[in-house]
Amino acid sequence: MIVAFSVTPLGVGEDVGEYVADAVRVVRESGLPHRTDAMFTSIEGEWDEIMDVVKRAVAAVEARAPRVSLVLKADLRPGVTDGLTSKVETIERHLAQ
Fold first, then answer.
1. What's the angle, vertex CA 91, arms to CA 86 and CA 95, rounded to 5?
2. Tens digit of pLDDT for each residue in 70-89?
3. N or C, where is the chain less crowded by C-beta within 10 Å?
4. What is each CA distance from 33 to 1, 59, 70, in whole angstroms?
5. 36-79: per-residue pLDDT in tens?
6. What angle do CA 90, 96, 97 make, to 5 degrees?
7. What is the C-alpha separation between 78 and 70, in angstroms, rounded?
């Protein structure tokens, strides 16, 4: 399973980088495979472990912000592992043709 999510603090002004860093820190400390880009953090693992990480990431931002927005998209595909890498490799292979 891969989950792409974004945690955004609301009511703290325009510069939210330090708040988002709190959420990303939780993901990195989880030990699960992950990637962070300008819009989302993607994380791969089992349902319960991913949801626990997302919940803790939201809590980290919520501890400092009066309101938090969470956007989440999930790809539930049993039996697939290393999807974060293999999906991108498939696209790159097609682009190279």
1. 145
2. 999 999 988 878 888 888 88
3. C
4. 11, 20, 20
5. 999 999 999 999 999 999 999 999 999 999 999 999 999 998 88
6. 100
7. 25
